Amino acid sequence: MYDYLIVGAGLFGAVFACEAGRAGKRCLVIDKRPHVGGNIYTEEIVGINVHKYGAHIFHTSDKAVWDYMNSFAEFNRYTNSPVARYKDELYNLPFNMNTFHELWGVRTPEEAARMIEGQRLEALEEMRSRGVTEPGNLKEQALCLAGRDIYEKLIEGYTEKQWGRRASELPAFIIKRLPFRFTYDNNYFNDRYQGIPEGGYTGIIDKMLERTEVRLSTDFFRDREGLSELADKLVFTGMIDEFYDYRFGELEYRSLRFETEVLDTGNFQGNAVVNYTEYEVPYTRIIEHRHFEFFGSSSEAGPADRTVITKEYPAPFKRGEEPYYPVNDEANNGLYEKYRELAEREDRVIFGGRLSEYKYYDMHQVVRKALECVNREIR
Ligand code: FAD
Ligand code: UDP
Questions:
Q1: Are residues 170 and 197 located together in one domain of the fold?
Q2: 16, 38 Cβ separation under 8 angstroms
């Protein structure tokens, strides 16, 4: 008999299993995929660690979480600085003095602020004429923050293809993730710590799970009763609506399709991440994986004449597809609340992670949540 059956060998499940194991608990981890790691899984192709489910950059200001992750792997000095391509134009991201210079030729923060202020006021005026005082959706939020030029070239097309909806029908919080600053700083994140684990993320998960029994290609719902009987408690990191057999209805997700290619060149696009912000290009970004781990100098440069790229295509979600992004608008959050109320009444089931909590969590938040959860349990 196990103490815990953990459904999902992603980051939440792995942290939970690792710490419960260290406290002497017996865990069985299952995952329906044929590998561990969930969405942070990386695999080596032509000597390059490939982020199989999209670019994953670890970033946090939470020192305890950073130290915890560094106890499993050394992190390199990678700093995410995506480039945005709009038609034939290139812009630095996130929105900063480089972007403003590329857009308008301005050179000082004062010139940039003046340019943006004019466009922000136009947006506020337009909203006021409709009786709106606070940005109520992503479009209004972006226009009030950055003005029309940035919205039209760098936000609208990308956002609408990413989410499959008009920007005016999306929650404002999605865009609040992105820094907006009046310095020449292309760092996509404001966090104190950032990097990519040497050797890829899968090595971290392998270490976390090294003393735990893991069964892959095992779907919990194929033998729910039989598997549940194996343990005193269940830790569930899959979709909460599926767990409750969709009794209140289906939560909405956005899915993705990844197209990975090996190319005969040592450098395809000169950067790890290039975003394609116009609506007409069907993918949102191209990732060139070598740039996450190899930087310049010949000893660290990686294979000379091969590179691996992945195009990321947004896709609708339907049952059976991978649910990558929760759509945290009011209707879905309301529906999730109903499931959460059911979940709270369970005494043998613990829910955790991005799917089970229906939240747009980054990795550091998942690690923090998993540590808090397992510490509560084993205490
Ligand atoms: P998951 O990784 O989804 O793991 C859940 C696991 O449960 C999966 O392996 C799944 O197969 C398994 N499972 C589900 N149902 C069942 C079942 N019925 N039976 C058995 N197994 C089941 N975060 C960052 O910090 N930085 C980034 O740059 C970043 N980029 C991202 C890019 C993309 C495209 C996406 C989608 C996410 C990104 N994230 C990023 C977020 C990051 O992926 C998550 O925070 C993290 O992977 C969540 O871990 P988890 O364990 O909650 O979920
Ligand atoms: N976004 C955008 N243009 C970009 C990059 C991002 O408009 O070039 C918007 C888009 O709505 C996206 C959100 O900002 O969903 C959050 O971007 P982030 O890069 O954090 O998304 P993730 O890595 O989670 O897909």
A1: no
A2: no
Q: Kindly give, in sequence order, each residue whose CB lies less than 8 Å from that of residue 176, ignoring residues fewer than 6 positions away.
A: 141
What is the domain extent for residue 113?
A: 95-174
Q: Is the pLDDT of residue 191 over 80?
A: yes
Closest C-alpha residue for ligand 2 atom 3? 155
Which of residues 123, 140, 174 is at a domain's end? Answer: 174
**Residue 190 Cα distances to 172, 177, 187, 195, 289, angstroms:** 19, 10, 7, 13, 22
- DSSP, collapsed to helix, strand or coil, labels residue 335 as helix
Sign of the alpha-carbon torsion through 317, 322, 325, 328: positive
Work out the mean pLDDT of the chain and round it to a whole number: 96
Mutate to test the pocket of ligand 2, among 143, 174, 325, 328 (most ligand atoms within 8 A of CB): 174
Q: What's the 50 CA to ligand 2 centre distance in angstroms?
A: 21
Calpha distance 95→277 (Å, rounded): 13
Task: Name which of 237, 303, 315 is nearest 268 in CA terms.
Answer: 303
Q: Which ligand is nearest to the CA of 324?
A: 1
CATH of the domain at 331: 3.40.50.720
What is the whole-number distance in angstroms between the Cα of residue 62 and the centre of ligand 2? Answer: 22
Task: Give the DSSP H or E segment for 69.
Answer: helix 63-70
**In-domain check, residue 319:** no
Q: Is residue 315 part of a domain?
A: no
Query: Which of 16, 38, 27, 25 shows the shortest CA–CA distance to 213?
Result: 27
Q: Are residues 200 and 167 in the same domain?
A: no
Average pLDDT over residues 189-213: 98
Q: 39 CB less than 6 Å from ligand 1?
A: yes
Say which amino acid occupies 70: N
